[in-house]
Fold these 3 entries.
Entry 1:
Amino acid sequence: MAASLFKWFSVALIGVIMTAAGPHPLYISVTEINHNPKDKILEVSCKMFTNDLEAALEKMSKTPVDLSAAKDKAVADRLVAEYVEKHLRLKLDGKAVVLHFVGSEKENDGTWSYFQVNDVPAVRRIEVVNELLYDSFSQQIGIMHVTVGGQRKSTRLDCPEASASFDF
């Protein structure tokens, strides 16, 4: 029951924080990892505050970044993909895997980025190194939800803690 309440509270709190106008008091990212056994794909989505992500991308690329500018969508997507692939690493059953960028979209004050890992018929263990926005905000919190075989597990990582594993 407590785990269920924690999941509900964390999702509700993140929704409120991610949609609030103006500066935000918390630095939170949300990473969802779902195994799709029918298509043999591991689906990965990450949500970060747009202004925080833009600051991290500007730091990485040493150039201004506006994720809302439609004309620069291809450049922005390339930067988002490069950033996430560098700061979010996965191992499935002990083997490192490659994230393939699918796309990104802005939603209110947050930006979602989507990735997939192909040819994943089954998963018993997922190891994650999640350092999203750690290089920009020392108080960054990473919330992760992982679902395999209908079983959902969640954890919270407080910077500098970056590693978690999930057994199914």
Entry 2:
Amino acid sequence: MSVEPESEVPVLLVGVRDEFVTRPWLSPDRHWPDRPGLIGGRDLQAGGTWLAAAPAARRVAVLLNGHGTPAAEELRRTRGDLPLEAAEAGELPPIELFRYDPFHLVVAGLDGVRLWSWDGERLAEDKLPRGVHMLVNSGWEQGDDHPRVAAFRPAFAFAQRPRWLNGGSPDRFWGEWLELASGAGLAADDPRALIFRHRLEDGRVFASLSVSLVAVAEEGMRFDFLPTPGDPSSWYRVHTGDPA
């Protein structure tokens, strides 16, 4: 996440979705008839999303699973509804927090970037200042102890910042950011890897299933999507125009 309020493109977001490979999903589209202004990938197991874009509002909301105390199973609600509600509202919606497993919710727009973190017991709220920031499952990592953060935060900060372009391929728009968001060539088992793949002891595979790049500017919103991590040629631009 890069925040530069005075820039031509004030907000740049890279979102990597990590999940079990057997969990079904659909690539970004207007999947919610009751929310026609929203675009996002759809989780077919619970019906929600991990990232919701609201192009008309110049706003995007993204969710990460957090660490902490899980909700009671009989009360639990899916966290996948939160990005949808937050993208529309522009903030954390009024919810019964005790019904949700720990999460980190980011809402980014032309008015700034806010972060809500719920650990099952306490809710924290932050506004991200100017600069490049990285969030992982442990939250907003501001040091260099996390190997992925230590490798990629300075790399994104050093990379040339994309300028607003009305058209063009993902590579033309994003430039150096596209290579970094594609994993920068690191092996999937490298502890620094942005795109990873792990086989658990029970045989299940937990991996990076997709990557999103979102740019928010006065002129509009740019949304590019990588449905096949490991294959940079699969990047494509998501249509963000008005619904038909």
Entry 3:
Amino acid sequence: MEKNQRTLLCIDDEPNILNALKRLLRKEDFRLLTANSGKQGLQILAENEVHVVVSDQRMPEMSGTEFLKEVKAAYPDIIRIILTGYTDVDSISEAINEGHLYKFFLKPWNDQNLKLEIRQALEQYDLMEDNKRLHDQVFQKNEELKKVNESLEQIILERTQNLEFQNKALQISHAILDDIPLPILGVSSEMLVVMANKAARQNMGHSRQLEVGDSIGDCFDATVESDLLGCLGSLEKKRISARCRDGRGFEMDLIPLTGRYQGQGIIMTLNPATD
């Protein structure tokens, strides 16, 4: 899907600095906006969709860290970068630790490095946007899986005398689960893999073929099994972060089974991490 053109906002109270940034970035593939104060920057943000902000640190009325703190509160998705002198490094480091900043650059900056970092910041914004979209898809698929599970359970209860229908329903459900593009694992209360669809097998890496009957502890790091057992005991959905044995990171939704299979297993949906 084609993305809209990204926008960069540069803020500095010195006109020569803004002019230097305009000359440096004029050929880049993004829209460039400028402001000469934090107050003007906030006004521009209220009127435009901005994806990355580069701000000077020492400005009258409002410092760069103060400005970016307000940006973080009002527009948390915007990537925030600051330009500063050597004497401000300690205060900038504190702001980074508090989560206000993505990165900082010392003046005078290296032109090529600054352009590269701005491009990477825009790419990071795109990754965050894609991750949110994937999270929404995961949530939707989880709800669909819940409905499919409840529907199949009801059908099986109503058609217990029709073995042919039950077998066909099971075959279709397995085929649906195998072809769903969302990576899904089924884990029993004994912490064994009882189902792994095609997307899960592909996303687990190539160091080892994932198979039914594998222990979940052989597939992921040690914390996953304890998280699964806790989820199975509480019967509440849970989201965790973990890595498989080949080092790939995932965000996982743990969904305990309900109905007559309550306490007997868990559905795991895997969302590959972007780091």
